[in-house]
Amino acid sequence: MVPDLICLTEHWLREEEVDSIVLNHFKMVSCYSRKSMIHGGSCILIREDIQDFHEVDEVKQCSIEGQLEVSCVANKKERMLILSIYRTCLGSFDIFIQQLEAILNFISVKYLDFKTTICGDFNVNLLLESNDKVQFMDILHNFNFEQRIFQPTRVTKSTASLLDNIFTNFDQYVQ
């Protein structure tokens, strides 16, 4: 089975390297790369036979390097929006929350009736109770997004955490 799209975070690509990435049967539709810092980034690749997705630059422009790094695509025909977000654990949580809320406000107006999927590495451990978790989940719930992954996404010999997740504003099954 070949997926329709791939969302990546922490791709580590520089802007000038993005076009050199070749992944069989996929095309890069949206990519955020850091300009001054190393590592990080987010991107969305779509299967090359799917033609109806385009980059949503207004959302990508909300990226703040080292705080919230987002790529975004829309399919107006299917009324679908997909965001791939990376938040480094070294950034300011307050700035991340402010930018996330700004993005959600924007898409709630411009893409009001779109089925929206937000996926990424948020570096907020949803297995632990914390003020960051409460604030993060409250904002997502305020915009009618629900968590779709509940099991640990990072497991070591001594720890388990849920830092990566998918959130949707619709109920259909997400693979």
Question: Your description of this structure?
Answer:
The protein is α+β, with helices and mostly antiparallel strands and 175 residues long. The chain has one domain (5-168): 4-Layer Sandwich (Deoxyribonuclease I, Chain A), CATH 3.60.10.10. The protein has three helices and eleven strands, in the order ββββαββαβαββββ. The strands form three sheets. The protein has a six-stranded mixed beta sheet with strand order 4-5-6-7-11-8. Strands 1-3-2 form a three-stranded antiparallel beta sheet, with no helix packed on it. The longest helix has 18 residues, at 93-110. It is globular and about 40 Å long. 34% of the residues are buried.
* SSE ordering: EEEEHEEHEHEEEE
Form type: globular
Task: Give the helix/strand class.
Answer: alpha+beta
Q: In the CATH scheme, what's the topology name?
A: Deoxyribonuclease I, Chain A
Strand content: 25-35%
Strand order of the largest sheet: 4-5-6-7-11-8
What does the main sheet amount to? Answer: 6 strands, mixed
CATH architecture: 4-Layer Sandwich
The number of helices is 3
Organism: Brassicogethes aeneus
InterPro entries: Endo/exonu/phosph_ase_sf
Protein name: Endonuclease/exonuclease/phosphatase domain-containing protein
